[in-house]
Amino acid sequence: MKRSVFAVALNHRSQTEHWKEAFHQSPYKTPPKTPVWFIKPRNTHRQTGDIISLPEQQTFSGGTLAVVIGKTARKVSAVDAEHYIAGYALANDVSLAEESFYRPAIKAKCRDGFCPIGQMAALKDVSALNIVTEVNGVVKQSWSTAELHRNAAELIAALSDFATLQAGDVILLGTPQQRIAVLAGDSVTIKAQGLPDLTNHFSDKVLPQMQPDGHPTLFALGLNYADHATELDFKAPEEPLVFIKAPNTLTGDKSVSVRPDNLEYMHYEAELVVVIGKTARNVSRTDALNYVEGYTVCNDYAVRDYLENYYRPNLRVKSRDTLTPLLDRITPRDTIPDVQNLQLKTFVNGEMTQSGTTQDMVFSVAFLIEYLSEFMTLQPGDMIATGTPKGLADVKPGDEVVVEVEGVGRLTNRIVSEKQFEESLK
């Protein structure tokens, strides 16, 4: 059933009430104006009956409702959204404690098994559906979807405005602020009238790795070059700033990327991409490169107008349709003598506007593999876009942008307006 699993934070009234004062203070300064999205990657996907391995940190159950997309949805209105819904299912947005909504929460949200989803069923009215969580047969929580800020139709409209949804994609509608702590040995069941129960058992044992479903995961790094962090008036991060890009954003070499209308600033980012070649869990830095199949190149465009104070980062910035051209050719690992000594360059209309070297990465390729594999399983085909050096510039319709990584490849694409793109689809 599952392709991409999108989830929305701060969609329950108890959450926004709890965080109301904090959102007027640093680092937020203002509450979010649009839905705060995040992605549950394929290593998190589980189904009813599966056992979930608990980390050492306190873990919480977040029973919620999932809406399953039934057909391609692009720029769908809330009024028409019901025609794009295949059905609903119960889900559990398992998480560590929510300590911040500033920057991504990948270590809290994206651990193995942290997104079980039940069987789908057709429901006509979910406007006031009670979601019940039982732990070991005892009711621990009951809440109603009437308490959500945005319903399923409104969320579909908001997401499909910039990301084309496909049949089988899933949206988790959110959870209350109060989550239910789970311990090893607990059995958690999520219930709602008209939907099959979702039951999972939690264990403190290390479990065999499961064959993942869904798309390979594309991880991306923010501020992973010190000069780029300085360029944006930030300090280099003390821990990798990792987020996930949705598949809808990917295009190929010689493709077009759409600059939304009425923007002040949209920029390119030339990036080295690491392609994982075999299952990696708890990999040491010294051994990490042995898990790499090879390398490729991407251009990670960003629309900075939509940042909204860096909430999680906003998918409207980083996961819009067409904004991640990716070279589909993989350069084998063994042909690159030193991955930490490669030149990156960007050319706009033939003029070089960006130049840097992987020597300046804050966190090396080997470090990133070690870091990610410590709390989640990397699978063959997963990719890590490793960040960009300084040298950003605004790009506009008509511009040709070329990004290249020494010894790895060269990627070309062209910027078009929304009008030009829409006409090309007719």
3D architecture notes:
The protein has 426 residues and is mainly β. It is built from 7 helices and 29 strands. The protein folds into 2 domains: 5-203, Fumarylacetoacetate hydrolase, domain 2 (Alpha-Beta Complex), CATH 3.90.850; 218-425, Fumarylacetoacetate hydrolase, domain 2. The protein has helices spanning 13-19, 106-109, 152-160, 226-231, 315-318, 365-375, 418-425, and strands at 5-9, 36-39, 45-46, 51-53, 59-61, 63-69, 85-92, 115-116, 130-135, 138-144, 170-172, 180-182, 187-191, 198-203, 218-222, 241-245, 250-251, 255-259, 266-267, 270-276, 292-299, 302-303, 324-325, 331-332, 343-348, 351-357, 383-385, 400-405, 409-417. It has a 6-stranded mixed sheet with strand order 16-15-27-20-21-24, with no helix packed on it. Strands 2-1-11-6-7 form a 5-stranded mixed sheet, with helices on one face. The two termini are 30 Å apart.
Give a short synopsis of this structure:
This protein has 426 residues and is mainly beta. It has seven helices and 29 strands.
The CATH architecture of the largest domain: Alpha-Beta Complex
Q: If you compute it from the alpha carbons, what radius of gyration comes out, rounded to the nearest whole angstrom?
A: 21 Å
The tally of domains stands at 2
Estimate percent helicity.
Answer: 10-25%
Give the oligomeric state.
Answer: single chain
Distance between the termini: 30 Å
Low-confidence stretches: none
- Number of E strands: 29
- Backbone structural class: mainly beta
CATH class of the largest domain: Alpha Beta
